[in-house]
Amino acid sequence: MRKRVLVVDDVPDWRATLQDILRNDFEVKTVDSYQAAMEVVRERSAELVIVDLRLSPTDEEDRQGMELLKQLAEHRINAIVLTGYPEKELREEAEEKYKIFEFIDKSILAKNYQYIRDVVREAFRILERKEKKKTEAIQAASALQTVSFPEDLSSWPLQKYRKDK
Prior knowledge:
Layout: E1 4-8, H1 12-22, E2 27-31, H2 34-42, E3 48-51, H3 64-74, E4 78-83, H4 88-97, E5 102-105, H5 106-109, H6 114-142
Parallel strand pairs: 1-2, 1-3, 3-4, 4-5
Helix pairs in contact: 2-3
């Protein structure tokens, strides 16, 4: 089964670009709003979410993306922020409070589309390692072996398993 990525961005061009970049490796669903994203989250139809922080083309103060990050954290779904507004305070809040996997400035990504593909691949590599460890622990428990369930079996937040962060 292909890994599922949800892209949440109010700009159609960004949604289409991200879908084009990722679709060869992943199943990509795109939505343009907080409400549509929450429907996908409730269905558990995404394993990783790429979130734009501002989800309104007309409201400069809109930060529905931060509210979405809060909901993703509560649902223990890993997220990547992709924003045109890479303010330091927002980055710190997203990383510290909502444990995002990566914070990416759209202006940087526009120069190097491979970067987002690499970040998404890294996230799924870590998720696969975590799932393998969980499976091994469950198999050991099924065989009535003594098993401990260490914290490193958790697949959220992935942020803490990155080697370079």
